[in-house]
Write a structure and sequence with these properties.
Helix content is about 50%, strand content about 15%. It has helices at about 20-30, 35-70, 70-75, 115-120, 125-140, 150; strands at about 80-85, 90, 100-105, 110-115.
Length: about 160
């Protein structure tokens, strides 16, 4: 009679505790030379400053765009920029302000007014302009622009007379 061998027990897998990873990171930071620590802190401060400057510039440019096209935009607003008709996430209103969906601690949803800086911080500037372009193309009855056409500068079939 053949005897079946019992399968060999596998050695338990060691789990690396989060504490261990945190201790290693902390020891790296505490072992950091004071001069290097100052340089790292200065680089962190500079990165934060650059982020604020980028948001400020993007918000200024978006505000300029909205002012330059105010009369045209007022004729087609409100524009749905993100979400769906039933559940909008971002809209451009007729007063050229933005509305952003927010959810409170009771899980209630509301559309709150947001400044251009807040909108630029929530959505990347290039994404905002892409969403504006798509919404305005829909409003004008044009087909959406295919991916990569913006960079290539190509028109879309059916956009007779539309400039790219």
């Amino acid at each position: 009679m053949a005897t079946a061998k019992k399968p060999a027990k596998k050695a338990p897998i060691k789990k690396v505790a989060k504490r261990t990873v945190a201790k290693r990171a902390a020891s790296r930071h505490s072992a950091m030379a004071p001069d290097l620590a100052r340089k790292v802190a200065a680089a962190a401060e500079a990165a934060g400053s650059e982020r604020l400057t980028a948001v400020e510039h993007a918000a200024d440019r978006l505000g300029r765009y909205l002012r330059e096209h105010r009369n045209t935009l007022k004729g087609v607003t409100p524009l749905l920029l993100a979400g769906s008709e039933k559940a909008p996430q971002l809209t451009l209103e007729s007063d050229l302000s933005f509305r952003v969906r927010s959810i409170d601690e009771r899980k209630r949803s509301s559309m709150d007014r947001a400044s251009t800086a807040e909108v630029v911080e929530l959505w990347a500037a290039a994404d905002l302009y892409d969403r504006l372009e798509a919404a305005l193309r829909r409003a004008a009855g044009l087909s959406s622009r295919p991916t990569g056409a913006i960079i290539a500068g190509l028109g879309v079939a059916g956009d007779h007379g539309a400039k790219v």
